[in-house]
Design goal:
19% strand; binds zinc ion; Arc Repressor Mutant, subunit A; three-stranded antiparallel sheet; 16 strands; binds adenosine-5'-diphosphate; alpha+beta; binds magnesium ion; single chain; 478 residues
């Protein structure tokens, strides 16, 4: 990235909540239903209809606040943000302005090869979403108000990030948290987790922040990074040419990799915020907060630490296994059944995740359950099968649903530990390769691997490799 200027980034993230009903009415939030089929006088903005707050939304906001180290306000207020747009039938959006529900939080991010860095979270507030305009035929526009009044959290960061990579690290962590909490499905493409990036630059050493542009329409982590990097270059060139950055909202075009100005930046006063007289100030008691706190799951960052400390796993393994809750649950169930964390980790990361990816299956639907996998690992540990044969057993379980022991039995995969049987094969292999055996005897140690390999092959992988080694050595000294 550009080195002539210091880059400053602050992010606003809209998190769409997974409550069953909308924030101020009882309509369903289900996605993909017939247009306007999930509406009522409240979310249609009909005169006289009154909003009633969905307390589940408050639970979710408190969850998000606690998980991001925020203070939860005992007293917060809903405000009207006034603007006109056809997808907003009331002519205002109910949001929070002064006195949001959560304030002064933070997340610690860690980039490879650098120190931990704390990113401040200014506030998290609750608000309703707008509807959707459909411009199908190019002649007219239609409005679908199913999304109107669905609940959002807006998470606003401090301008603490200095590179696109830091911004992505922060976003990924926030994303992981809301998905772990089960309050958001996390789908960037469908707009369940939407990010606006505020970007400015300033000469190194300057205290005041530069003028920022706000980037919108960023629906993948890759685009967010691209858009920030493009914006930094654009601003740097402007300043280098003696120009000025104007405060504006810019729309990123992912196909072309450029952004263009959408509109001048509106200010808070343009929205004529005022407390919504239809909704009482929200009181959140200590009890309410404690009750929500008691439902918090162990978060990914805590798991990441614990997997390294408690299980002695490398940071890489711990990162992969803790990134998604269902993967973490699979791994933890497995370790509880088979107390060899690193072996469990290897199997989950390579065999299980690999096969799931190949077949496009979710881990919750994995045909090899942790108990079945533990059955395989047990048979490796007691030398019934070799690690190599174990992969065959894994595939057998995957396609038949039978247990490890059943597959081993049916397919005759037991490791051969009968000395006589292995010796017979060793003799055959020596007889078939007399020249090489003489060379091995004469000191060409490299050939040991060749002989072990041949014996393993002849036994279809079932001979115990250690015994093969021992027997070969015996033959050499004979
Ligand atoms: P709004 O965009 O709604 O007017 P704010 O003034 O609260 O709201 O700022 C929104 C975001 O912009 C915050 O994440 C904040 O950290 C970030 N921000 C504010 N000023 C700058 C700046 N000069 N450069 C980069 N980010 C900034
Ligand atoms: Mg903004
Ligand atoms: Zn409704």
């Amino acid at each position: 990235m550009n080195s002539r200027y210091e880059v400053v980034i602050g992010l606003e993230v809209h998190v769409q909540l997974t409550t069953k009903t909308k924030i101020f009415c009882g309509c369903s939030t289900r996605f993909g239903q017939a247009p306007n089929s999930q509406t009522c006088p409240v979310c249609l903005g009909l005169p006289g209809a009154l909003p009633v707050l969905n307390h589940k939304v408050v639970d979710y906001a408190i969850k998000a606040g606690l998980a991001t180290n925020c203070q939860i306000a005992p007293h917060s207020i809903f405000a009207r943000k006034n603007y006109f747009y056809p997808d907003l039938p009331k002519g205002y959006q109910i949001s929070q302005f002064e006195l949001p529900i959560c304030e002064r939080g933070w997340l610690d991010i860690e980039l490879e090869g650098s120190e931990k860095k704390r990113i401040g979270i200014t506030r998290i507030h609750m608000e309703e979403d707008a509807g959707k305009l459909l411009h199908a035929d190019g002649q007219s526009s239609s409005v679908d108000l199913n999304r109107a009044c669905t609940p959002l959290l807006e998470v606003v960061s401090e301008p603490d990030m200095r590179t696109a990579d830091e911004a992505i690290a922060y976003l990924k962590q926030l994303h992981q948290i809301v998905v772990y909490l089960g309050i958001c499905d996390g789908n960037l493409e469908e707009g369940s987790f939407r990010c606006d990036a505020n970007v400015s630059i300033r000469p190194w050493g300057q205290k005041e922040l530069g003028t920022r542009a706000e980037l919108k329409n960023l629906n993948s982590f890759r685009f967010i990074k691209q858009a920030i990097e493009y914006e930094v270059e654009r601003q740097a060139e402007l300043l280098d040419d003696g120009g000025k950055v104007v405060q504006e909202t810019r729309l990123f075009d992912a196909d072309k990799g450029v952004s263009r100005s959408m509109r001048g930046k509106e200010e808070a006063h343009d929205y004529r915020y005022f407390p919504d007289p239809d909704l009482l100030p929200l009181k959140v008691s200590e009890d309410w907060i404690d009750q929500v706190r008691s439902t918090l799951p162990e978060l990914p960052q805590a798991k990441l630490q614990r997997y390294q400390q408690e299980f002695g796993l490398p940071a890489y393994d711990a990162g992969v296994l803790s990134a998604e809750k269902p993967v973490a649950e699979y791994f933890e169930t497995l370790v509880a059944l088979h107390d060899q964390p690193k072996i469990c980790s290897n199997w989950v990361m390579s065999e299980v995740l690999g096969a799931l990816k190949d077949k496009g299956i979710d881990i919750v639907d994995c045909p090899v359950t942790p108990a079945m996998l533990a059955g395989i690992l047990k048979r490796i540990a007691d030398s019934t099968i070799s690690g190599k044969i174990a992969k065959q057993v894994f595939d057998g379980i995957w396609s038949t649903g039978k247990s490890a022991d059943q597959i081993i039995e049916e397919q005759g995969l037991k490791q051969v530990t009968d000395t006589g049987a292995i010796e017979a094969i060793v003799n055959e292999v020596i007889a078939a390769n007399p020249g090489q055996f003489e060379e091995l005897k004469g000191g060409k140690d490299k050939l040991m691997g060749f002989f072990v390999g041949q014996v393993m092959k002849a036994s279809k992988g079932k001979a115990n490799p250690e015994m093969v080694n021992q027997l070969l050595k015996k033959k050499l000294s004979a």
